[in-house]
Write a structure and sequence with these properties.
Strand order of the largest sheet: 26-27-28-29-30-31-32-33
Distance between the termini: 21 Å
Number of helices: 5
Number of strands: 33
Strand content: 35-45%
Largest sheet: 8 strands, mixed, barrel
Structural class: mainly beta
Helix content: under 10%
């Protein structure tokens, strides 16, 4: 769309930057294999950073260390905070990004650790504390990159191990019939590790079988239950677990696995965003993640940090797919303790309403849920749409291949011009993956009412070389009035279908792109009633050929063109497609809840921009 949101941006409270999934191979209905983007490679757990950290961000280079390549998009880190001088929390984010999120909370003098998955910015992350100072350690266990690697398959949380372990490694088989369906070719598993009944202070270490890297999965105090997600590479289909001192009872709950399966999901990292803040009780609370958190409706799972604060009783948090309540613990805590854990739950629901659910074992607690990425399967594309037109004719290599639905511009930027590569772009649109509530292919047309500036202006109610039109505003005689404005719009719509050879016009929803000036040069008369009549003429023609119609604009620009649209107008109640003026999927999702363009309407689609390509979110 050339391009309303370059002129009038809606001001929203969510300011995020989403890294979208870009599939570089040709995509069609038959392509179900996961793309080569966002695949996981486990590495032998090793330390990549140790240093003193305070309240100012410390930038930590990751790429080039521990086998993490320069093209890695995200990294899996275990973050340990040792001997903090004040109570607070640690925040690990992409370098240069400082959202108000928490990686792990800690008490003064209390050492603690937590797994995090964080997007890399220039191969780097950054770390800071909310108060005081502490020694911080980073241990990398894997990374996501484009190319070879493993896809992820989420499963319903399932317990695969529960036993007392000591300081000698205990092998834990994690593949086979008794291992939550984890196949023999799995390269790694995501497993929640709970530790309780510890006889001494110490830490638990979970590594691939036969390997004993000097790292800590979770630090704990004696007889204090804790839990932490671990993504562990497998050796011979097994991992191993040990504690640093004494004994402890250890439980392992699998949430998903990585393998070479082409039907699995790939990871899309985003700048961490707070998706939920609310009170929990013992009844499950559904949490929608596809509303403002930048999670598309075709996501299979999310990566999120769950922080529990002010619990009224000792217990645990259970975060699971919506509608499912397996008997597992995401995070243990004491009454009054703030603590966080990384989670990777499968999400369930419709294509516009992907959810998880959360509850506590007893009492109440407050939950913050911060999303740092999501997984998509190979058959759904990106779960979002794209729109292209004449400006992209010369650069077909930039046309997205991951779109779930597509909108193609019929005109060449002005109402009287054609898009010279419309047929090729329509063929591209037909390769859309589907899977959302939006039609896979839609069209948009430029609009204007130039009056005396028009190169051609109607002089009757008959279209040149076309039919005579029933005009609700009377007889057009060539004047600059409502009757001839209606005929101008009707004629332009007639030409959009007939002159530009759009096949099966009734199959598509036609969007009326209402802009002022800008790259399209759209001009309008000063009389808003005439402009309204012009657009009504377009609606009249499109509906006469049984096509559906909607309006693309902002409330500000549409108001300047048409004024308030009454219920008697055919424009009243038409579906709304609204641009955000930004580059964030989360911002576009938030705009779904904004006021529609006309009373009686609904916002069915919103737009944002990645690079030079417009992307679109389905709101219905």
């Amino acid at each position: 769309m050339q391009r309303v949101h370059h002129f009038v941006a809606l001001v929203l409270g969510v300011l995020l930057v989403v890294v979208g999934l870009v599939v570089v191979t040709p995509a069609g209905a038959a392509q179900a294999a996961a793309p080569l983007t966002g695949r996981y490679t486990p590495v032998e757990t090793s330390r990549v950073y140790a240093g003193s950290v305070g309240t100012k961000p410390t930038v930590v280079p990751i790429s080039g260390k521990a086998g993490v390549p320069s093209n890695a998009r995200a990294v899996v880190l275990n973050v340990e905070v040792k001997s903090p001088t004040a109570a607070g929390y640690v925040r690990v984010t992409p370098a240069g990004s400082d959202p108000q999120v928490v990686t792990q909370a800690f008490t003064r003098g209390g050492s603690i650790s937590n797994l995090t998955t964080v997007k890399l910015s220039g191969g780097r992350v950054q770390v800071k504390l909310s108060a005081g100072a502490a020694q911080v350690y980073f241990d990398v266990s894997g990374y996501y990159a484009d190319g070879r690697g493993s896809t992820y398959t989420p499963v319903t949380n399932s317990r695969v191990f529960g036993a007392t372990v000591g300081t000698d490694p205990t092998e834990v088989p994690l593949t086979g019939p008794d291992a939550a369906g984890v196949p023999s070719d799995a390269t790694a598993v995501a497993v929640n590790v709970g530790v309780q009944s510890q006889t001494a202070d110490g830490y638990v270490r979970v590594t691939s079988a036969g390997h004993d890297a000097q790292v800590a999965a979770q630090v704990y105090r004696a007889d204090t239950p804790v839990s932490n997600l671990v993504i562990v590479g497998l050796s011979g289909g097994a991992a191993q677990v040990k504690v640093s001192a004494g004994t402890a009872t250890v439980y392992m709950d699998v949430t998903g696995y990585y393998s070479s399966a082409t039907s699995g999901s790939v990871f899309v990292p985003i700048d961490t965003v707070r998706a939920y803040s609310g009170d929990l009780g013992t009844a499950a609370s559904p949490i929608r993640l596809s509303g403002t958190a930048g999670v598309p409706g075709t996501a299979t799972a999310v990566v999120a940090t769950a922080q529990v604060t002010h619990p009224s009783a000792t217990g645990y948090l259970r975060l699971t797919p919506a509608g499912q309540d397996p008997q597992v613990a995401t995070q243990n805590y004491r009454a009054g303790q703030s603590v966080a854990a990384l989670t990777m739950p499968k999400v369930t629901g419709t294509t516009v309403d992907r959810r998880v659910q959360a509850k506590v074992r007893s009492g109440t607690a407050h939950l913050y849920l911060d999303v740092s990425g999501y997984f998509l399967d190979g058959s759904s594309g990106s779960g979002i749409g794209a729109d292209i037109s004449y400006p992209q004719c010369s650069t077909p290599s930039t046309w997205p291949q991951d779109q779930s639905f597509a909108v193609v511009g019929v005109n060449g930027g002005r109402t009287t011009e054609s898009n010279d590569c419309f047929n090729q772009q329509l063929a591209w649109a037909l390769t859309s993956h589907g899977g959302t509530s939006q039609p896979k292919v839609q069209l948009y047309v430029n609009t204007a009412n130039p009056g005396a500036l028009a190169s051609v202006w109607p002089k009757s109610n008959t279209i040149p070389k076309g039919p005579k039109v029933v005009n609700p505003y009377g007889n057009c005689t060539g004047g600059y009035d409502k009757a001839c404005s209606f005929m101008y719009g009707y004629t332009r719509a007639y030409e959009d279908v007939q002159k530009r050879n759009v096949p099966n016009a009734s199959k598509y929803r036609w969007w009326l792109d209402v802009e002022i000036g800008g790259p399209t040069g759209a001009t309008w008369q000063s009389d808003k009633l005439q402009n309204r009549a012009d657009l009504e003429g377009m609606v009249e023609y499109f509906t006469s050929v049984s096509a559906k119609v909607g309006i693309y604009s902002t409330r500000y620009q549409l108001g300047l063109v048409t004024g308030t649209i009454p219920s008697t107008s055919s424009l009243y109640g038409l579906p709304s497609w609204v641009p955000t003026g930004g580059s964030s999927m989360a911002e576009a999702q938030a705009t779904c809840s904004s006021a529609p363009l006309t009373s009686g309407s609904t916002v069915v689609m919103t737009q944002y921009e990645i690079g030079a390509i417009d992307r679109n979110v389905s709101c219905v």
